[in-house]
Specification:
Number of domains: 1
Structural class: mainly beta
CATH topology: Jelly Rolls
CATH architecture: Sandwich
Amino acid sequence: MTRDEFVAAARAEGYDEIVERAMPAGFRDAEHRHAFDARILVTAGEFSITIDGATRTYRAGELFVVPAQTPHAEAAGDEALRYTVARRHAKS
C-alpha cells in the first residue's frame, strides 16, 4: 500500500489527522494508551507492538490499527523506524 492509498482510505474512514513519525533503532516505549484510534502504515524499518502480552511485528508496507484506549507498548527494530499514522479523534 502506498502512502497516498493509505491516506485516502484513512480519510474515507473518518481519520481526521495524518502525521509522519520516526523512532530511532532500538527505541522502546512502555505500555501506554492514546485517546484516539490510530491506523499506522510502516514506511521503513520494523514496528513491534505488544497488546495483551502478544507482540506482533510489522514491516514496510504493512499497516495495523490500535483502537483508542487500548493499552500497548511499542518498539522499533534494529533500524530506524518511519511510519505514517492516521488519528481518529472522538467527536464531542
